[in-house]
Amino acid sequence: MLNVTAVPAAPDAARAARDRAGALIAAPLPADAEVHGDWVRAPGARCGAVLYVHGGGFAHTMPEAERVVAYRLSQAAGRPTLRVDYRLAPAHPYPAALEDLLAAWQDVLDQGVPAHEVVFVGESSGATLVLSALLELKRTGREQPGAAVVVSPVTDFALTGASLTANDGKDVLSRAVLETVTGQYLAGADPEAAPQSPLYGDPRGLPPLLVAAGTDEVLWDDARRFAEAADAAGVSVRLDAYEDMPHAFHLSEPGEAFFDRLAHWLADPVREVTVSGPDAGPYALVDGPDGALWFTLVHQGAIGRRDADGAVTVHAVGAGPTLLAQGPDGALWFTEYGSHRIGRITVHGDVTSFAPPTAEGGPFGIAAGPDGAMWFTLSAADRIGRITMDGEITEYPVPDGFPSALAAGPDGALWFTLNRAGAIGRITTDGRTTTYPLPTPSAAPVGLTVGPDGALWFTEIGAGQIGRITTDGEITEFPLPDRQARPHALTTGPDGAVWFTEWGGNRVGRITTDGLITGYALPRPASEPHGIVQHRGALWCALETGSLARIAVPAE
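The structure corresponding to this sequence follows.
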């Protein structure tokens, strides 16, 4: 589901945006601005770059005012900003301006600026050019920037958006003006084709997008429809809806909110991508043997796969697929809590399943063992199961206590949480068990993983703590700052720390091996984070609201 944030208008802000249009850029360029050609740098701007593509209906430019905008962008992004001086229509119609933007992008790369440290920012017609450039870079297989911000883009030159009529007369821009702009810019090019009309392109694989538009704009539906299409294609996109604002609101005094939100969005290490409907329930995930990210859709009875370009494939399986893990046979194995079976799915989507001897056992946790078999918990039956690659199942009784997650330890045994008993269990490959009661009553441990220090780390959902147990049974507990956070799942990150989800706190937490705890809030409230895994150098967690969140791991 598209992440839409309503940005309320302050009292009289809408009137100010109309009566004092351009107030933010009417003042002179600040004296502390460094201007070198069309590069503008605010104090404190560091490495990377912003490519700023100005508006003006593809036909007009105001270099001095645009340098003020470039300065504001440099302040917000903390990077030097290049104002792209592209050729103008009608003397130079499509694709001249797009070619100039692509040439400017190549020049920035040739100067040695890493692509992932560059942000494209465009306003109005410049926002259209940004989206066109992204589509063209993807089509031709060229490097793309790390992120893009578009304000009030024209995405459909066929002019089919409902807001073109609904907001005509409310906005400072009109449908009649857009018809003139379309004719001058396209000069006969197809209005229903990409990249010139971005809405008709394939947005799969685009970088993270921040789309901003005023709800009183004639272009509101152009912005909204492109954001929805990008979201459906697996792009990390946020739509900021500025209530009651007209076109070019970001250049007037109310635009202060836009620059502030842009700065926070760029600095946020968490990006969210939609992978299902809000009721499907992404629950657990795993880094697949094919380089894709695999996840369970617990309420949909399906397993999903997301490739590097963001394309999602969904395979129907049994009821209630819960946890999943890579098997030694190159397939994914998973528990079907609702149908009481163990499932197997190949990377090509072929599905088989196996029924354990104990009926109604409630399989939950699953992991590859050191003996070439898969091991799993039967939480409702207080048993641990073992299944070979050809489907032969053996079960072992464990102490009463609702065995939940399990993991293969560094000592050649399987370790598991006993949720109701408040204990950690250990089982050898020949079925001998040992239990270790936790110091905190009602700890209710759930998630379990092998830490970077060779110990087992686990979540205490009932106590709001993270626990650690060595292979000789020594237990340490670390209280979270929010004891109501209800930590659920955890994994070792690429930075040598343990990362975990806070189901009750709507956060992703991080704990170092010496107990230092930090964390990140998720982009939208009540996301219900559950599973978490390391994938392609970042952390990914499953949100039961229909999305996956990617957390960029900060450099140490």
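The chain is about 15% helix and 35% strand.
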